[in-house]
Design goal:
Elements (H helix, E strand, L loop, with lengths): L5 H25 L4 H22 L11 H25 L2 H10 L1
Helix pairs in contact: 1-3, 1-4, 2-3
């Protein structure tokens, strides 16, 4: 293991700011929107670049195949439920506490 350099600390600090800003922005959004709406927009806005990249590189999107139910189930378990629970939890606690708890567990 090598000794950390100043660039490593800068990158760690940048990552920390990005991580914390997500929870801060979710907290701000909970004043205007419900957890379901926040989860929907997080998934929808994240899917747009992925679909555009697939179209640009001519990658076949397997979610439209005969196994769409499995892909939908995986997406629901790995994206919809966690994003909903994060938005719901941030409504009840401070955003900095939510970020720490998510980083810990």
């Amino acid at each position: 293991m090598r000794n950390p350099k100043p660039l490593d600390y800068l990158l760690l600090g940048t990552l920390s700011l990005i991580w914390a800003s997500a929870f801060f922005n979710i907290k701000i959004a909970t004043y205007s929107f419900g957890p379901v709406t926040i989860a929907f927009f997080r998934i929808f806005l994240g899917a747009i670049p992925v679909v555009l990249l697939c179209l640009a590189k001519r990658i076949k999107i397997e979610a439209f195949s005969k196994d769409w139910l499995w892909f939908a189930s995986i997406g629901f378990i790995n994206l919809v439920i966690p994003f909903f629970l994060i938005a719901y939890g941030v409504q009840k606690v401070q955003s900095n506490l939510a970020a720490i708890l998510m980083a810990r567990y």
